[in-house]
Amino acid sequence: MAKVISILGSTGSIGVQTLDVARNLGIKVAAMSANSNIDLLEKQVHEFKPQLVSVADEKLAAELKNRLAGIKVQVLWGLEGMLRTVDIQGSDTVVTSVVGTAGLIPTMHAIKNRKNIALANKETLVTAGQLVMQEAGVQGVRIFPVDSEHSAIYQCLMGNDEKQVEKIILTASGGPFRGRTLEELRDITPAQALKHPNWSMGSKITIDSATLMNKGLEVIEAKWLFDKGLDKIQVLVHPQSIIHSMIEYIDGSVMAQLGSPDMRIPIQFALTFPDRQPNNFPKLDLLKTSQLTFEKPDVETFRCLQLAFDALKEGGTMPAAMNAANETAVAAFLKNRISFTGIPDIIERVMLAHTVNICPCLDDIIEIDGWARRQAEKEIKGQTDIL
């Protein structure tokens, strides 16, 4: 069980829920980073009394430092602040819950400093899965998945021979627009897309869930976390979000992990592994669960899922290019610069323009990330000009 943790992204959805778990279990928080929500970060500092906090820039850091005058806490900013957050002395586990590729460098830094990782940042493995897993192996670091789906897989594998796995089955809620046609999706607004039927998440992840890109990113994550090829990973739409994922074994047995759609449960498991601890979170009542249904995902309407499969098949730097294009397109959609259906269009165009580097180093991945964002902006401007 984690005794002392650091949190990247303490004011985001996962960060706030991680602090709820820490509060419940009495886990000490040594350091926290946030982007710009210093109002919430200030409250968190007062309650959890970390040694160090970090924010996005120097101006925010100066304001936060003034607010925390008289409290013994170091206030830093930028990438250097994030690196200090993860390598702070005394912390044994880093919860990486920042959104996007911003989490890649700090996560690699934490691994090099031999910190266990509770991973909620999908993009770290999507963009640099091979490098991250190799470094974790070299340093003897454990990576505990926080995503409910990967946590479910992790639990279904416990006590079993991974060589006897026939298939990983990732479940997806289908998002708020399940069953709609492509034509019906053209006029979707950001406000509509941010209303997820089951989960409470940050805005970027919620949009990814609506496009099914979130599931595509999880497919790539699963490949690296569990060392399985594309032919061993299947996605099923499960609207009730009760079965979080499943493993099919070679003898036909299927193991599933069930639970309420509450992210605090997989967060707690990541922090208490291999033990389990009681909590007061809502428990699953099977008598109130009328049905569990499954559907094949509609990858023609929700093309982002297929694009993620395509990127994984291409390999090398293609997933990094795809991810950067998606982040840029989602941000543009949230600002009403492009349509909902414009998101996969932008991603596909960037992928078509990308020349894959099959064996990249970390610097290559960072370079491709920047290129893909610039290319996506060009494509967005082209769409905007047409509109």
Automatic annotation (TrEMBL):
GO terms for molecular function: 1-deoxy-D-xylulose-5-phosphate reductoisomerase activity; isomerase activity; manganese ion binding; NADPH binding. Residues 143-226 form the 1-deoxy-D-xylulose 5-phosphate reductoisomerase C-terminal domain. It is an enzyme of class 1 (oxidoreductase). Keywords: Isomerase, Isoprene biosynthesis, Magnesium, Manganese, Metal-binding, NADP, Oxidoreductase. Its cofactor is Mg(2+); Mn(2+). Belongs to the DXR family. This is 1-deoxy-D-xylulose 5-phosphate reductoisomerase. It comes from Ruminiclostridium hungatei (Clostridium hungatei).
